[in-house]
Amino acid sequence: MEKEKFPTKLKLVLYFLQGSKKYFFLSIIFAILSSLFDLINPKIIGFTVDAIIGDAPKKLPAFLSSFLSIDMLKGNLLLVAALVMLVALIGAICRYLFSLMNSTGAETLVMTMRNRLFEHIEHLPFAWYVKNPTGDLIQRCTNDVEMVKNFLSEQLTGMFRIIVMLVIGLTFMSSISVKLMLVALVFLPIIVLYSLFFHNKLAATFAVADEEEGNLSSIAQENLTGVRVVRAFGRERYEKARFEKQNDIYTAAYMKLSALMSAFRSIGEGISGLQVFVIVVLGTLAVYHGEMTPGNFIAFISYNAMLVWPIRRLGRVISEMSRAGVSIDRIRYIMNAQEEVNIAQPLKPDMHQDIIFDHVTFRYDEQGPDIIKDVSFAIEKGSTIGILGGTGSGKSTLMYLLDRLYPVTKGKITIGGVDIRDIDSDYLRSNIGLVLQEPYLFSRSLKDNIAIANDKAQFADIEEASRIASLDHAINHFKHGYDTFVGERGVTLSGGQKQRTAIAQMVIQHAPVMIFDDSLSALDAETDAKIRHALKTATGQATVILISHRITTLMNADQILVLNHGKIAEVGTHEELYKQNGIYKKICDIQNIGGRHA
Ligand SMILES: Nc1ncnc2c1ncn2[C@@H]1O[C@H](COP(=O)(O)OP(=O)(O)OP(=O)(O)O)[C@@H](O)[C@H]1O
What we know:
single chain, transport, binds adenosine-5'-triphosphate, ABC transporter transmembrane region fold, Rossmann fold, alpha/beta, elongated, six-stranded mixed beta sheet
């Protein structure tokens, strides 16, 4: 097994943190500073109550006593108020800087994550995409990325702040009264455990609600995209009932979530209230018995109130940590997938050469059956070969192998004597034009879609390619001509128009090898013949591979290969095969084709 690039979560997080580390570091510094300043004010207020307003014999800190005295402050209480305001202001500025650094860090992080994920996904082998459902990948690249970002920016930096608050807060509290600090401390684990328990419950309920929301939007999406089927089969009432049922389940899940949240908040308030109550009672008694000054009592209560929120938050951080851990693993799965690799010094040979399939055997899964079984044939450069075969006989698979979308299991494919494994994969693919049966068009203009395989294409080239693909007529009928926007998944085009757009894409590529994988199927026989004729004149030297169920598409090829269950059953020209009285002849008879060329 190949070594994983990111064996641990930490390694992946550090990889993504490149570029945003400095912002998070600064945000932690500002978080610490803001906590410090927040914690100074209760001290000042406590001191003021005891020494300045009251009569407790206390001294000013050394750095202040050089230019201030308690008597001076007694006459100018406003100075103390100004100090309190100043400290609060500095605290607020630190909090602002914390927040700014934190959000800058988070946005930089999420941008790096998306870019690196996308770049990695772009370089993964074709087989990987087939194995992994698109919806799941999108979920990983959006929701999981967001989850990790939120955890790192909101929870993790928050945790540093909480720890600082706890350490400094408890130190200050113990300097006032160790006994009372211990009483406050007893409640802390109770609050943390309680909040952890609830957050875990909340997370589980939230996951259910999330899933139900996904189910609900799937039903809505299916009905919107499949509206024609729903109408044609009169399924409206059934679909409405199905939606309502799912909506009930979804609403119930969210109601449960709200009930849980309300319970969490009120019980939390209850426990914190109880803690404050105990502290107030014990503190009052201590002041009454002269064990504590009123100023210290006020400071203590302020510290206690300040600590309750971070402690409750700690439970959330711990529970979110496990959820973020799951998300990091889901992203790690993608980042650990092996990218497609070329050999050390890949070759870029002339591609206008003979193509040879030499004892090629292939299976998709290691444990699965052989789909291509010991197939050998040669395609002379510049010739046209037709491949005929029943559904699932392996025609498309053969072409995927030639394009190196999958590696052959046994045997080899050579172009001009060079094994395709030794050829640079980008070079190989850019020299093999492949038109698929169901082409995929991007949500861009027709012009941009046609020019997709050739950045340097001029408008005249686009027009010429459209003419060869018999698309020009249709385009001229569109209001916006070549600027017509191809809607989501190309819905504004008919099946035949889409196929012709894909053919135009390939023509503009000027590839020395052209493959038409059942890509003339949505065209009527006349257009099919017209396009093939135009292609022949335009492409001249190119080697052409035609895959089709329609004999008329293939019959003029220099060589026809009949594939049956992954094996070559018959090879020859139309006349030769017709005479053989085999599978080819049978198909000709079904399609009412005679033994002569069209
Ligand atoms: N990604 C895959 N994983 C596993 N098996 C696959 C995969 N793709 C195709 N197959 C199987 O390989 C066999 C050949 O498929 P292929 O698409 O090459 O046939 P085809 O001759 O082009 O069929 P059609 O004329 O219907 O397009 C089929 O049995 C199919 O189920």
